[in-house]
Design a protein that fits this description.
Helix content: 10-25%
CATH class of one domain: Mainly Beta
CATH topology of one domain: Jelly Rolls
CATH architecture of one domain: Sandwich
Largest sheet: 8 strands, mixed
Number of helices: 10
Radius of gyration: 34 Å
Strand content: 25-35%
Amino acid sequence: MLTLTLWNTAESSQYTIDLYDHAPVNLNYQFSDVTEINKAKGSYSQTFRVPATKSNTDFFGRIDNPTQQPSSNFSVKKKIRASLSYSSIPLMNGYVQVKNMFVQKKDFADIELIFFGETLDLVRSLQEEKIADLDTSTLDHDLNITNLQNSWVGSGAFPLDGTIRYGIMDKGQNWSEADGTLTPFGTTSATALNQSDYTPFISAKWLIDNIISTAGFTYSSDFFDTADFAKVFLPAYNGSLVPRSSDNDAEAQVCGVNIAANVSLPVGSFVLVPFVDSFGGYDYSNNWSNVVTEHSYTAPYNCIITCTLNLVLTQTAGNFRIVRNTTTIIGYASTSLTSTTVNKTFTFTLEAGDFIHIIGESTTAGNFLVAPTASGWGGGASSFFRVDSVTEPFSGQEVNMSLNFPDLKQIDFLTSIQKMFNLVFVPDNNKPKHLIIEPYQDYISAGTQKDWTNKVDFNKDVVIRPTTDIQKNVYEWTNDVGQDFLNVAIQASNDRTYGRYKVEDTNNDFATGELVLKTAFSPYVLSYIPSTEVAIYRCIDGGGGGVQKPKAHLTYWCGLTLLYGTTWIYNDSVVPVSTTFFPVFSNYSATFPSVADNDLNFGYEIAFVDVQAHPLNTLYYKYWMSYVNELYSADSRLLSAYIKLTRADIQDFEFSDRIFIKDTYYRILKISNYDASTGGVVKVDFIKILSDISDCAYTPTGQLTSGEITFNSSATNYGNQACCERYGYVWVERKVGTSQCYPTSLANTPTI
């Protein structure tokens, strides 16, 4: 018999729900839709009714009457974990939702439910949650030279074991070696980089694991466990110039004290009044101490601070000192105070925990006088000691990862990953709340062959039709529009996003419309720091400033390279140290890629940095091409038939199965309205399986040291012009000898 099992809201107890005898409970099984390839599908039921028996109302409560005591097991606002089975054969796992209540002859009669499978519930569970809403406390870490370098090799304790790696992005530093007015890039000890110039990148796998587990699911995926996907990272960057430690540490510190007016200083003292916010200063991190005898600023991390001392004196018989901890670093003797006005700006390097303060001393009591404070800092005859600015941290701060993530919904992150790698999310029939996630081609290639010829009801029409009616004129795969100067220039000149791929079917008179598969990520495009050979992503606008509220990106971790020469970095003691290792993040899977490497763009593009050749394996070529070719082939066919399926067939089938019918293998697209109560004949939609559809007669597979592209795994096969240009390379005609295929030339980087 058919059994519906529901869990209470705490999922601590199970309840068997009374069903109507022989009433239909129609189930629909689907995981993808060839008409909407941009959307993941899930299995679901049509609505069905259950009676308002005592047993059922014990579980649901009298939900027909809001004045009645509500059930502790159930809430109309909460999804209900559910399992549907027949004589212990599982038919569907997922959740139910109450849609309607029915009253007949003034009595509570029926409750209408709808059943939805695990995949649909994952979407419901994520809703509006952001990546920053994940519990990332275990990712927080101190920024120091050891952790920075450990992240490069993955040798530190979690999360510096490869979960987080630090790389270089231009976030508004506007590095350049071409103009002395811009910031030089750490090529000498005098231009050393701060540790905070580096950006943390978070493993995409860690995000996926935690998004899915937080939603209450588990999953298995051979693809996510590959070494290739382990290299996919998301920059933890949301517009801050430095990795953030608190909600306020991205703000410059401006704080200080006003010196009391008309005070005759006794020997050995300097009277200050407490910091007053009305003067325009702020000290969000409480680094300024207002102890009456010692007003001081304590460095929260290794940094450079700029301070101003302004004194208006009526008498100058004294001296003052600026002290770091207990050591005088700036001092003025009474003999040097020949003017009644002192205005000095100082710059100091401080390590975390260092404090700086001012000590005033009169040599003769009553002869070292401070003029009145008029309107505060800089206003009229004012006297003050002020911390004007604190540079970005060198090191020492704790990086709070949740504060560094881009503004991105968890569901948008997952669906964007799905679109990039053409992933399927398939519920495990035998394991509740467990998903199988694989690229489409990998999943369907692992299926089992089954012969359903004898299950077809040939008394009903078996419909075979071409795919022309469901095809679009145009399919487009693209990332979101980029905001940096390079992406903006590409968009303006080409009227498209960098890395887009477009399929146009000009030979189909019946195809209509356009379908765009667009991710939430913007392109991660490398260019050189001007007058250097260092290739990084420059997330800066046309004015050289950092992009504000940047969109999310995905990038490959390529490891460390020696190609960029020596880079200087300040260590924890703010001493420049050199390294020949440079951490590389790129849209390519290798620092100096060739044909066999991977590209996180959908389509082929001319690079702005040196490559051996742009990779063949774009996202479209590697994950979408065979799917689209199968759909667009002239031999492609859809089949609809009525199939007699037992409950064992339902339990046993997978969408990856290869179903043999008469003389052809098909793949299941959808099972419609399977009656879980009675079983029997049900409509099934299939698509014909086409294998080895050639995209072109010759496929690029290698490259000679002299630069020529080779084809079909042969060092002497040079392909042809059509296939060379099909994959974005250049066919060079020769008057003498064999014409050959070559990489494209380097693109010119727009100037800022």
